[in-house]
């Protein structure tokens, strides 16, 4: 069986054809930085037309997702997916079976399926990109929570709120590539549209004081987050995914900020990088098919 896999991100839509062994047979990526929900859905339909051998659809998407019904209660960085029955729409439009799962859950499932966590019963996944996602695997099972919202690590507080603007005190405002860019641009009086996360780290590498300040804050908050998560879940391993992990000294830099916490837990980068969403979505699809037989 070939599966049409889709990973809806904050800035790009990744599309692939994946077989039951987890091999990516074909893939492509399109920019969705300024695209509407309808445009994203049309790109999915176009991919299916170009790849008629697919017998099912697997989607990874941000937000609060019911993995059984494929209903997106809150679309995260894709607000037009709020309160949207994505699975139902896909199955009506294509007559193919479909599944929809949260993107951080998919990253975790990819690691468990064929990555570095195949033999690991307790581990955590953090995904750092446009937003900060997370997922926990405890005692051999994915932790979903009562409303399928477990793992929203971006909502963890970094300081005590002094007003009702709780979000401004969360990891989402200090520990994502979006926050890194915005914080740097506030200091340099530049437009965030002209700066990438890589630009900030490049400036950091040259000794730029403003970049040093925001990068230090990024690592300090990330280290505190990992300390808190290790205390709550007691994982054997912690995996971190996202574009930041392509930075060669990332783990060494993070380790310096973790030293004071004395965390005796193995911290690694995710195995599959930008492919983890599609792979995890495909694994979720295959598992759902087995359950329905």
Q: Can you tag this structure with a few keywords?
A:
293 residues, alpha/beta, five-stranded mixed beta sheet, 23% strand, globular
Account of the 3D structure:
By secondary structure, this protein is of the alpha/beta class. It is 37% helix and 23% strand. It contains eight helices and 13 strands. Helix 3 crosses helix 8, helix 5 packs across helix 6 and helix 6 packs across helix 7. The chain is globular.
Write the layout of secondary structure elements.
Blueprint: E1 2-8, E2 12-19, E3 24-31, H1 37-50, E4 54-61, E5 64-65, E6 71-74, E7 84-85, H2 86-94, E8 98-102, H3 103-114, E9 123-128, E10 132-138, E11 141-142, H4 177-188, H5 197-205, H6 209-233, E12 237-241, H7 250-258, E13 266-269, H8 276-292
Parallel strand pairs: 1-4, 4-8, 9-12, 12-13
Antiparallel strand pairs: 1-2, 2-3, 5-6, 6-7, 9-10, 10-11
Helix pairs in contact: 3-8, 4-6, 5-6, 6-7
């Amino acid at each position: 069986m070939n599966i049409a896999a889709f990973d809806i991100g904050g800035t790009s839509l990744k599309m692939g054809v994946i077989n039951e062994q987890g091999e990516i047979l074909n893939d492509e990526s399109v920019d969705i930085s300024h695209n509407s929900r309808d445009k994203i859905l049309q790109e999915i339909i176009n991919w299916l037309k170009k790849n008629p051998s697919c017998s099912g659809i697997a989607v990874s998407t941000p937000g609060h997702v019911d993995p059984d019904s494929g209903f997106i209660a809150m679309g995260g960085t894709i607000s037009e997916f709020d309160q949207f029955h994505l699975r139902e729409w896909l199955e009506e439009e294509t007559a193919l079976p479909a599944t929809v799962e949260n993107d951080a859950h998919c990253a975790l499932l990819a690691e468990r399926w064929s990555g570095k966590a195949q033999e690991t019963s307790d581990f955590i996944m953090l995904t750092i990109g446009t937003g900060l996602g997370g997922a926990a695997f405890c005692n051999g099972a994915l932790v979903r929570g009562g409303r399928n919202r477990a793992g929203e690590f971006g909502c963890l507080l970094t300081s005590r709120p002094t007003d009702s603007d709780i979000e401004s005190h969360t990891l989402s405002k200090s520990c994502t590539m979006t926050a890194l860019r915005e914080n740097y641009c506030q200091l340099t009086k530049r437009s965030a549209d002209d700066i990438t996360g890589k630009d900030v780290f490049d400036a950091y590498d040259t000794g730029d004081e403003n970049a040093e300040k925001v990068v230090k804050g990024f690592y300090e908050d990330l280290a505190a987050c990992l300390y808190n998560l290790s205390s709550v879940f007691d994982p054997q391993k912690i995996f971190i995914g996202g574009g930041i992990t392509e930075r060669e000294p990332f783990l060494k830099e993070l380790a310096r900020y973790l030293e004071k916490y004395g965390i005796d837990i193995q911290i690694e980068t995710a195995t599959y990088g930008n492919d983890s969403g599609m792979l995890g979505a495909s694994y979720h699809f295959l598992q759902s098919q087995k359950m329905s037989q």
